[in-house]
Specification:
The complex is a heterodimer of chains A (294) and B (65). Chain A is of the alpha/beta class. Chain A has seven helices and nine strands, in the order E-H-H-E-H-E-H-E-E-E-E-E-H-H-H-E. Helices cover 32% and strands 14% of the residues of chain A. With 65 residues, chain B is α+β, with helices and mostly antiparallel strands. The chains are: A alpha/beta (294), B alpha+beta (65). Chains A and B meet through strand 1, helix 7 and strand 9 of A and strand 1, strand 2, strand 3 and helix 2 of B. Bound molecules: pyridoxal-5'-phosphate. The site of pyridoxal-5'-phosphate has 11 residues of chain A, from helix 3.
């Protein structure tokens, strides 16, 4: 019997997806193989990966000038991979600090580039998102980095910051696919899959194609976005089974009515819980700022 | 997607988690960096799961509040 699992990640997956995976475990669509046993270069797996990418593109309405990469390394890996891929020819990257995950990102980035903390919510225990008007951005910065949902502290952006010509980079690990997002306002969106998408091991990167010429020469090939884009994310062996499960989750989301429909359900869930917290003199919600509650 | 909250006294945390588990709700312990509780309510968490949590929280409050 299943249980209600409130884990922050690896996290609950749709039961239908797990049932499909179980039914297909030994013999995927008459191939006589488990997806786990397939070559990533065989036609079966290539079809699985292509369908997963097409479904993700449909769910998030990803414009054609963005590449979708299915990589390894996790979001913590991306904390280094992002600057490596974006800072060649630049001296500064701006970071907005809204909590534990932003802190980790900017600390890692310091190994590769000068980091300017453009705004920080540390003054009020990371319980809010600093308003855009307060951000001290660097003209000519390589990019502006945000964590769109702080998985530990619980604050979430309910708006997309305007950073002008400087590309906006977002760690969306715990927010991606929870609601519609205007991808065109971002230079890069990345996230580990193990929260809202599928099993651990898969990292998703959505990157605007004009940003693919800014990688430091030291960037490892496995994490070099341009090289991976040219190789359809198969420069190294991708996390095949995780991609397959993510693909099943994308199908499930489409069947639910897509991210606009799932957003309504997510709003209803958050309201149930926050109404309970607000009405209680016993419990205390960590995020005081209603506008920044995820 | 992640709702961190605290009980009035951290000494109650263990009893809260134990009672939740008895009602088949797990992994509610907050991250060690901030303590307290955290309910992650990702896409795959059904509304029923959150409703069950809220009902449990209200019962727990009546018993310990
Ligand atoms: C917002 C955010 N960023 C980064 C990470 C780290 O991801 P990973 O462990 O996949 O490297 C997590 C969660 O673990 C997260 O919630």
């Amino acid at each position: 019997m299943r249980i209600f699992n409130f884990s922050a990640g690896p996290a609950v997956l749709p039961e239908e997806v797990l049932r499909t995976a179980a039914a297909e475990m030994l013999d995927w669509h008459g191939s006589g193989m488990s997806v786990m046993e397939m070559s990533h270069r065989g036609k079966e797996f290539i079809a699985i990966a292509e369908q997963a990418e097409a479904d993700l593109r449909a769910l998030l309405a990803i414009p054609a000038n963005y590449k979708v990469l299915f990589l390894q390394g996790g979001a913590i890996g991306e904390n280094a991979i992002v600057p490596m891929n974006l800072v060649h020819g630049f001296t500064v990257a701006d970071y907005v600090n809204t909590g534990e995950w932003s802190k980790k990102s900017l600390k890692e980035a310091k190994k590769y580039v000068n980091v300017n903390v453009a705004a920080s919510a540390e003054d009020r225990a990371f319980s809010y998102v600093p308003e855009r008007a307060t951000w001290q951005l660097t003209p000519g910065a390589a990019y502006v980095h945000i964590c769109s949902n702080e998985t530990i502290g619980g604050v979430e952006y309910h708006w997309t910051p305007d950073t002008g010509d400087v590309p906006l980079v977002a760690d969306m690990s715990s927010q991606i696919l929870s609601r519609p997002v205007d991808v065109a306002k971002y230079g890069v969106i990345y996230g580990g899959a193990q929260k809202n998408i599928g099993p651990a091991g898969l990292t998703i990167v959505v990157v605007r194609d004009d940003l693919l010429d800014r990688a430091l020469p030291i960037t490892p090939s496995a994490f070099h976005w341009k090289e991976q884009a040219a190789a359809d994310s198969m420069l190294n062996t991708p996390p095949t089974y995780a991609i397959y499960i993510a693909g099943l989750v994308f199908r499930w989301l489409l069947a639910q009515g897509g991210v606009a429909a799932i957003e309504q359900r997510n709003i209803a869930k958050a309201k149930l819980l926050y109404d309970c917290l607000d009405a209680s003199g016993f419990y205390r919600a960590r995020c005081g700022a209603r506008t920044a509650r995820g | 997607m992640n709702v961190p909250f605290r009980l009035p006294d951290p000494a109650l945390d263990e009893a809260f988690l134990k009672g939740a588990k008895e009602r088949r709700m797990v992994q509610l312990k907050g991250h060690r960096a901030v303590g307290g509780m955290r309910a992650s309510i990702y896409n795959a968490m059904p509304v029923d799961g959150v409703a069950a949590l809220v009902e449990y929280m209200q019962d727990f409050e009546r018993m310990h509040g």
